[in-house]
What does this fold into?
Amino acid sequence: MTQSDEVSRAAVERTAADRSARRHAADAADAGHYAALMARQRERFTAAFGRCKDAERSEIARWISKGAALLEADARHTPSRAKVAVDMMKKAVFMLDPKAPA
It folds into this structure.
């Protein structure tokens, strides 16, 4: 193996390590973003749940929020599930109060 082969191999390894570090940083940023969105949706859910007088809508919204909580737990291993969890919480809030502010 020549010296130039060793240099190019080292450059490839550095590039792969840089890409991996950027990917991990992006995943961490996404996780923080979706955690903030989920916290906001929980606040909206709590407020809408307190205002809702319809027992059937409340029960359905509760089940939807439990599904969102499961997806949120799965998001630790599969980050794309965080977005679905946030969307489910939005639907739960809509179920409780279709006119709730976003």
About this structure: The longest helix spans residues 3-51. The helical segments are 3-51, 55-74, 81-96. The chain has a mean pLDDT of 87. The CA atoms of residues 62 and 92 lie 7 Å apart.
